[in-house]
Amino acid sequence: MEDPTPPSTVMVKGFDLRKGEVCRFYFENTRKGGGDIAELVVDEDQEAIFITFEDPEVAQNVITMPHKIGGRDLEVSLYTPKKAAPMRHKSQEPAEEEEEAPLRTVVFHIGQETSESEDTYALYFESPRHGGGEVEAVNIDKDKGLVYITFEEPSVAQKVITMPHNIGGRDLEVSLYTPKKAAPMRHKSQEPAEEEEEAPLRTVVFHIGQETSESEDTYALFFESPRHGGGEVEAVNIDKDKGLVYITFEEPSVAERVAGKTHRIAGRQVEVTLFQPPKPRPTYPEKLLFKNIADGTARDCLCMYLERITGLDPAEVLYGDEVGTVLVTFDHEPDLVKTAQFCQKRKLEGRQLTVAKVPISNCLLVENLNDRTTEDTVELYFENKRSGGGAVEKVEMVPEENKCFVFFEDHEVLDGVLQKPHKIDGAQLSVKRYMECLGQSGGSQDPTAFTAPKPVVMTNVDPYKVAFLRQSQEIKAGFLQQLSNSHAEVKFEGNNLSIACSLNPSVPKARILARTWATDVQQVAGEFLGMIDVLKRHLVQQIWPEVETVVRSANIASPKGATFFLVPEESAFVVVGMKSIAKELLDKINTVATAAVEEAIEIREVKKTNT
């Protein structure tokens, strides 16, 4: 009699058995079809990992899905040879119709030649003189010459449309924007969101894989074809890192028609769905971000100005990495509209400041990573409930500094993550909240604070180029001077170059230079090394001894800017030097070597004849 209990164990093949922890993170992730794991066993004899789930239905789900970790395709099957139950897709009940929200967006035609920025429109429509109020969003459609202004209160939108408006010398006809109703994209793992007044969805998305070689034109032509239900395509965006393609149509109806169908593109079947852009994150009520502050503005002067334009005492002032950027925290919520109006009227030391709300951070800065920790491991770890995290939007690795930035889809999970200790691949991690607006330093209370960048290590530099730089004092001096001009000092460590920063607080604009120092010195060093050629000529091993003797005895003079090495173990000589000079030296050696080769062959032929 067959056991009525469905199997709850799966067998996983094709995975690196040494990384069982990563495998656990992956299959505990509900987005991968996984769930709570009761037991994980690594069987080296069978070269497989056996995973027993607490819920048998999870095992049934897992085997119906494709799985890939670290670039490897996994083979996942039920451990007991029983017929697997088909994967059940929970059908979504149609949402009950809700009362339509009052309209909060107005639209007007400004023409395609407009030069006004989003800030200009926001400040204009936040002015009470124009009947305005708190603006939630400004969207400019340059192709159609339209501007959409979304207010926080519907009453403001109603008031604005009754008044005359003139921006940039143009009279505007402002009307309420009534979007067409679009079917929301359904995610299995998400509950239906409450309906809001939104622009109709015009973008579809599908997964094509990271190895795709198709161009944007290929996708545009495919989805403009009536045979595929397509229409006029406005834009094509390819995210190669995630293997996703986004197609934006001019008409929402085309996107709706294309979505929900399977299409065959370049020999691959792809499932196309409507793309629902993520909702904007809420903002910190008590924080404002100011920009365009002069680098020499004293902190006391700035604080007095902030107090004047907001009517509040700044509780904290943090200077960001970007010049002129300051994040200010107040004891109470400041009035953004009034503050923006004051910034327009009153300059600070000749600068007109801009001000904006700050989205609540959804990012963590993770430091002290193990050298062997990969992006996949970090993502799986922080999506695992044991870390206190949730769905990860993206991970940005900074391997040279053993750190990364982890962006979550839901900002609310950050508090839970920060309350726990974290360890990956044996390394105890430092985890803290990251404010994107402040930059990688996290901000400083001192406008003159200076932190020297960490050294840059260029690994696996061509050993012949390193040997040439060591040997040629003139070229080496030029290399060192180029780096010195970029406030850098270099040390030769084997085939690696360790470049240290020589900036200090006494250097004018040291804080500004430090922000791009690492990128700048890598570019300078890379360009200089790129001007050095390494040219090789390999010879037949049997005649190498004779040729080597001739070349050595020829006393070929190396010109300034080039040299050569004889490499017996490779039966070759190598010319290294600045591009045109290296070629000239190679030609000289080739002349001597060719004559030596011909002579060696002739001698061998004579010996054969005599024997």
UniProtKB/TrEMBL annotation:
Pfam families: KH_PARP14_1 (PF23084), RRM_PARP14_3 (PF23085). GO terms for molecular function: RNA binding. It comes from Littorina saxatilis. This is RRM domain-containing protein. Residues 105-179, 201-277, 362-436 form the RRM domain. InterPro entries: Nucleotide-bd_a/b_plait_sf, PAR10_RRM1_2, PARP14_KH_1, RBD_domain_sf, RRM_dom. Keywords: RNA-binding.
